[in-house]
Amino acid sequence: MNAIETMDLTKKFGNLMAVDSVNIQVERGEIFGLLGPNGAGKSTIISMLCTILKPTSGTALVNGYDIVRQASLVRKSIGIVFQDPSVDDRLTGRENLEMHADLYGVPKSEMRSQIDKMLELVELSDRCNEFVRNYSSGMRRRLEIARGLVHTPKVLFLDEPTIGLDPQSREHIWSYIRELLKIEDITIILTTHYMEEADKLCKRVAIVDHGSIVAMDKPDSLKEKLGVETITVKTQNNNLYVEKIKETHIAKSVAIAGDEVKITLLNAHTILPLVVDIASRNGIKIESIYLQEPQLDDVFLHYTGKALREGSKELSGMGAIIRRQIK
Ligand SMILES: Nc1ncnc2c1ncn2[C@@H]1O[C@H](COP(=O)(O)OP(=O)(O)OP(=O)(O)O)[C@@H](O)[C@H]1O
Ligand SMILES: [Mg+2]
């Protein structure tokens, strides 16, 4: 049985088609990512799967329960971490978890140990008796993740779990998510704008645009399908070099970006020597050159035609880079 199966899941807000006949299957135990530009419909899909919103048509099974006909069974079997902060900052960290555990009917006998276990997972054990209003945003986020897990859900929904966090806090959250998968029998659906996050964590991703799935596969397969690679070259005469590369018609595109020349090609590995040769034949000295395999950012751009939201850029380009310095 799949953890999630949607059947033509659709949501209209008036005339706006927010989610358009979406069909997704998520296997048990996988981390599945929903990627898409602002307003693509990611949160709306999650809200329907969590039974917060009713579909206009179509339906879905979550843990085998129908989101329309068996909403309360769905609710009991899932955990949610919303896009917008939702912990109560007038309570302590522990009190927040207790309130939630109570709400979900976690037996008193198990409550303490379950809460301790989750506090430990998100490294808040030593701060759990402080008021949440004194927490940093990273700590709040970690508490929200712990809260989403306190009633041992089978499926956890994380809507932008690391938005606005610094790279270090983000890394921490990734490690909790990975750890969680090892210790619990759980399936995770997450939305994110950070391509590196999706690439590192998700077994499969779906790219959503204007309410529809435009691509769905393993991150590596999506990158491979794209085919193009980028060679970035820094020369002592970039303008002349661009001209010479253009003359050879080997590239899909060539452009100056900052003080470098970016050349995208279908088969960069085999063309690399030629790219070097063009420079030396024309007396252009190369200062550095590196080959970059396609990134998930490139996949995203290809399918949605949109660049990523600000703030995610610093994370791009850290993946499969083969850097070669040429003296
Ligand atoms: N309650 C609502 N009433 C009317 N329109 C809505 C409502 N909720 C969402 N929408 C619209 O539905 C579309 C999808 O919104 P949604 O929040 O699902 O996008 P998203 O992919 O989560 O975006 P983001 O990346 O900004 O979080 C948007 O055009 C949004 O304005
Ligand atoms: Mg959203």
Short précis:
By secondary structure, the chain is an alpha+beta fold.
Q: What features would you describe in this structure?
A:
The longest helix is centred in the middle third of the chain and has 17 residues. The termini are far apart. The chain has eleven helices and 16 strands. A hairpin with a 2-residue loop joins strand 13 and strand 14. The chain folds into two domains: 215 residues, P-loop containing nucleotide triphosphate hydrolases (Rossmann fold); 102 residues, 2-Layer Sandwich (Alpha-Beta Plaits). The C terminus is likely disordered. It has a six-stranded mixed sheet, sandwiched between helices. Strands 1, 2, 3, 5 and 6 form a five-stranded antiparallel sheet that branches. The protein is an alpha+beta fold and 327 residues long. The chain is elongated, with a radius of gyration of 23 Å. 36% of the residues lie in helices and 27% in strands. Bound molecules: adenosine-5'-triphosphate and magnesium ion. Magnesium ion (MG) binds next to helix 1. The site of magnesium ion has 4 residues, from helix 1.
